[in-house]
Amino acid sequence: MKTNLDQKNGILTVTIAGDLTSTTAERLRADIHALCDTPPEKTVWRLLRLDLASAKMVDSVGLNFIITILKAVQKHGAKMQIVYANPNVHRTFLFTRLDKHVELVPGAAG
User: Fold this and answer.
1) Is the model's pLDDT at 36 over the cut of 80?
2) For the domain that residue 52 is a member of, what is the CATH number?
3) Which of 26, 22, 16, 76 is nearest to 52 (CA)?
4) Which of 11, 31, 42, 70 would be a feasible disulfide site paired with 6, CB 3.0-4.6 Å?
């Protein structure tokens, strides 16, 4: 997982290389919680951009991971975007109605 904070624009970008599945989500869970553990009044970012452009698959554990992140982001009064490149990943987000809660942004495969 790679993170980049654009303090000028208040955007925290979290890039995940590869698929978001049970094997990767569990490893990333502690890292993402550390990012979201800052008290809301001290959070310098207002948008968390989850970059999944290199993912070809997101399984149920990966979806659960995204929902957990979304809840933490909302607790901070921030918003969340997901960058995707693979049409199968996009369909998964549409099928699960995640697009009703998170802004989906098409991106280039990484």
Assistant:
1) no
2) 3.30.750.24
3) 16
4) 11
In this predicted structure, the answer to whether residue 1 has a pLDDT above a threshold of 70 is no
Return d(Cα 35, Cα 108) in angstroms, integer.
25
- The mean-pLDDT minimum among 37-41, 69-73, 83-87 falls in 37-41
Q: Specify the number of domains making up the chain.
A: 1
* DSSP structure class, residue 86: -
> Is residue 52 within 8 Å of 58, Cβ to Cβ?
yes
Closest-CA residue to 62 (of 91, 93, 25)? 25
Nearest alpha-carbon partner for 45 in 75, 71, 9, 81: 9
Range of the domain at 15: 2-106
Instruction: Kindly report the average pLDDT of the chain as a whole number.
Output: 87
Q: DSSP letters of 24-76?
A: HHHHHHHHHHHHH-S-GGG---SEEEEEETT-S-B-HHHHHHHHHHHHHHHHT
